Amino acid sequence: MTLTQFPDDWQTALCVAAHPDDLEYGTAAVVAGWTAAGKDVSYLLVTRGEAGIDGMPPEEAAPARAQEERDGAAEVGVDRVDFLDEFTDGTVEYGLPLRRAIAAQIRRVKPELVVVGSFEMFYPGGFVNQADHRAVGMATVDACADAGNRWIFPELIGEGLEPWGGCRHVAIAASTQPTHFVDVTETFDEGVASLEAHQLYNKGLGPDFPSPRELLTQILGMEHLRDYGEKVWAAQLINRR
Q1: For the chain, which end, N or C, has fewer CB atoms within 10 Å of the first or last residue's CB respectively?
Q2: Contacts 24+ apart (CB under 8 A), 220-226
Q3: Using DSSP, how many helices (H) and how many strands (E) does the chain show?
Q4: What is the model's pTM?
Q5: Which one, of 111, 129, 104, 110, lies nearest residue 119 by Cα?
Q6: Strand partners of residue 171
Q7: Torsion of CA 50, 52, 58, 59, to 10 degrees
Q8: How far apart, in Å, do the first and last CA atoms of the chain sit?
Q9: Distance between CA atoms of 67 and 180, rounded to whole angstroms?
Q10: What is the mean pLDDT of residues 56-82?
Q11: Which keywords, in A-to-Z order, does the entry hold (predicted)?
Q12: Residue 1, pLDDT score
């Protein structure tokens, strides 16, 4: 496998995820480097992760996890974190409502780069990818095209959201077919701090679950990526123009 250095010819990025903490499993480490370099990065969470803590009712988990996401984002220099409140954790479905909501955010933020997690059935290593992740990943890729077409979701124009066709790159993190990489060795600690900010969620995983540092060492220190750095974020890059 030969990977190419991730492009630097962009200034604004939108990172989309299904739940609070999804971006912290590797992507936050690369975001830390981007924001330190002066790039403008924002987050969009499709749900507030209300079904993610077994011992906490959804009405309590939702605001708690949303705040943990804001705290984690702050650790890597992100101060804009938005949530879509029309979707429910655990039952997100791919379809027009999801595409429309993400396309609307793309028109608001006007990113040149959109980052999303894999929508494959399995992650590298063979672990099954959760259903919400698959729905959000596929919908995000499609929404990048939707955002630039005035005849798809034309009602968005009536809401003041003109088409945005400036999304030049779409990066799919945790892909089994990565094409590009970023050495995140220098921002690894910021990535760890971002995941550690999810204290309630991490506690709910139980004492036998790997610590944030241990887990990110596994994810970003995979043997097959060692040619590109001690800690490496890899993604499949789709160039849209």
Answers
A1: C
A2: 220/26, 220/29, 220/184, 220/188, 220/191, 222/124, 224/1, 225/3, 225/181
A3: 8, 8
A4: 0.97
A5: 129
A6: 115, 237
A7: -50
A8: 24
A9: 31
A10: 98
A11: Zinc
A12: 74
